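P.,

For your records, the input lines for the assembly:
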Amino acid sequence: MSRAAEERNRRMLRARDAMDRTYAEPLDVPRLARVAGVSEAHFIRTFRATFGETPHRYLQRRRVERAMFLLRDSERSVTDVCFDVGFNSLGTFSRTFRDIVGVSPSTYRRRSDRAAVPNCFTMAWARPSSFGEAQEERGD
Amino acid sequence: MLNGINITHVWVFDQNEALEFYVGKLGLEVRDDVDLGNMRWLTVNVPGQPERSILLELVGPPSVDPASGGALRELISKGASGFTVGFTTDDCQRVFEDLKAKGVEFTQEPVEHFYGIDIGIRDPFGNHIRISQPKNGAPPA
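Structure tokens returned:
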């Protein structure tokens, strides 16, 4: 692999790291291309060749991943979560979330709640079972 | 039974450049720098902890064939080497400011988690390094 190709990868990685780091900020192609130090047209094409998806899609997935986290682990409203992770329209957020996750943000939250909330159920099922030993003892 | 970790490795593309980063910027100490003829055995450690070192291993022949070396460089430079090393500190914010002033690349600025505060950085080759300040204040023994 040539030094130039390595340098190209590092530039693309720099832009990807910027998306992971500052996903909540408005990140457009000109800004990311500046981070990578390449032209805008070159940036989208090279990023895709390097990471297998467009920078736009990479950023959407990062924002949706962060939104999933906030929906699970915080009490923020869906609208607040939408803006917290960098979307500027609830419509785009809901559409993108559903497209990537398969369900709407509120359904996702409800299902996460269902898995986490009935603590007595979790406690009952997660507690190490002693049934096997008990049966062995009975056999003795 | 195993009773410790004494050495781990990080692939580097240039050992002098690696020293500039790991010693010059992160502040590690050189433990061994030995010319073995066919290779340079280069290890670094956190100051005062020579019992745990990191081998700054050069990607390339004869250790790996040229095609494999090229593939490794291709993957590492696009960040595919994953989580490489985790350091601890007693003041993550201070480390962050120090490294920022030295021009280190960040993957994550200080974030508070349930286990403490941490940051993520890249070495010059694309390896991902994390630095954390554990909540109890003390680095693990």
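Two observations worth noting. The radius of gyration of chain B is 16 Å. The interface with chain A takes residues 13, 69-71, 73-74, 77-79, 105-109, 122, 126 of chain B (CB under 8 Å).

Regards
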